[in-house]
Fold this sequence. Notes:
Elements: E1 3-8, E2 14-21, E3 29-33, H1 36-52, H2 59-63, H3 66-76, H4 84-95, H5 109-120, H6 125-144, H7 176-191, H8 196-206, H9 210-214, E4 221-222, E5 227-230, E6 239-242, H10 245-252, H11 268-282, H12 291-302, H13 307-314, H14 319-325, H15 330-337
Antiparallel strand pairs: 1-2, 2-3, 4-5, 5-6
Amino acid sequence: MATINSRVDQDNNVIGWQAIIRKRGFPSQTKTFRTKRDAESWSKITESEMVRGVFIQRNDAERTLLADALNRYLQEVTALKRGATQETSHIHILLASNLAKQSLASIGSREVSRYRDIRLKVVSASTVNRELNILSHVFTVAMQDWGVGLPAGNPVAATRRPKVDDRRDRRLVNDEETRLLEWAEKAEQEDGSMPVAHIIRFALETGMRRGELAAMRWDQANIKARVLLVPETKTGDARRVPLSSRALSVLNTLTRRLDGTIWGAIHGASISRAFARACRRAGIEDLRFHDLRHEATSRLFEKGLNPMQVAAITGHKTLQMLKRYTHLRAEDLAKLLG
Length: 338
């Protein structure tokens, strides 16, 4: 049986009730409540869990704020990831939320849902899902690696995720490619800081991702074999990208830099900003840099390549993923049919 004692102040007024459970084979459990009824209820539930073999030590979860767990996760997990910079920004958003002020034990699906709904008023569903993915992994790591007991398990797993429909079928139409390259070349001539026109041409020939393009180095390019090695990809697997004649011509026009980089010391975000400026100046609306990957993948299919061949070039893992990016124009398919 649990021992329940009253807690009094200096004037001997009862200010709370302390429940103490000592059971052989289990660590001593102590918790203070405002009312005696709450103390008795907690004691009965806890003792029942011990008898049934489902008791989980809650002390660490009750003492640890989500903010503490997020900061530890930043140091021990996020710091080791390739996408550490982007994930860190998401974690800072979580740290600034009211959720971070609560203990791990007090956070359930209701609290996570409230956070989700608040964020959906500010950012897109895909951004909210990325934040929830991080939050979910924090709870998983806390349970599996840090030994923090969560009686109800991972609260994010029980939370409904917002639906995301970010599929795009935007392709270059009419003279958009000509106009885009024209203004991108003007931008190169004006500041010379980034060969954005060359990057666009290379992206359209290879379907490479923005980050893969930004990280390109001369020691990864085998001009004779017409192959470019991409050592680090989004999927974690290296791949060798075959280079078309047009892709080779882009590389052949470039001057080799002393630092070994092909485009210079640039970041993916810089490419997107330069691309957006070129689109604005060319009067092109609703076109993102990632749409070039979609365009390049579609063109590979239109050339007659099969899904396995396209996947080997673009790095897509499944046919389902290829379907998301590939929207073939009926006019082009009609030409293939003869």
